Amino acid sequence: MQSASLPSHYGEIETAIESGVASLPVSESVVDRAVDVLRPFIHDVSDAVGVECIAAGAVYAGCLLEKEKQRQADVADVFGVGEVSVRKYYQEMLDAKDEQCSDPELVSRMRVLRP
Questions:
Q1: Contacts of 38 by beta carbon, 8 Å cutoff, 6+ apart
Q2: CATH class entry, domain 10-113
Q3: Which of 17, 41, 79, 98 falls 20 to 30 Å from 9 in CA-CA distance?
């Protein structure tokens, strides 16, 4: 569901997330978490950043937060991006989510996940 305050490319990213997870053995809760992590981050990202890079970072962050093991390499392959892109964007998304999150358990888990 798109909000008027979301950037124009948000829908493309959401579609890429849904398409990508279809190729990964993950639950629907990973998709929900990926979209949740994406929302606070999306306002700070340039339209020039590839949709696939952002989607891959969101999905990897969603996997981590839902404790569903996926390798960065596997997520990168599914989205056609490099592992460095996955690493860069999932970390930035967790930082953005951390700043807006009021759930202490989730904040604690996000801090543990960051290198």
A1: 10, 13, 14, 17, 54, 58, 93
A2: mainly alpha
A3: 98
- 107 with 98: CB under 8 angstroms? yes
> Contact at 8 Å (CB) between 91 and 64?
no
Backbone φ and ψ of 26, nearest 5°: -130, 160
Q: Name, in order, each residue with C-beta under 8 angstroms of 55's C-beta and a sequence gap of 6 or more.
A: 13, 16, 17, 20, 34, 79
- The answer to whether the pTM exceeds 0.85 is no
Domain parsing of the chain, residue ranges: 10-113
pLDDT digits (tens, 9 = 90+) for 1-22: 444 466 667 889 999 999 999 9
Q: What letter represents residue 76's amino acid?
A: A
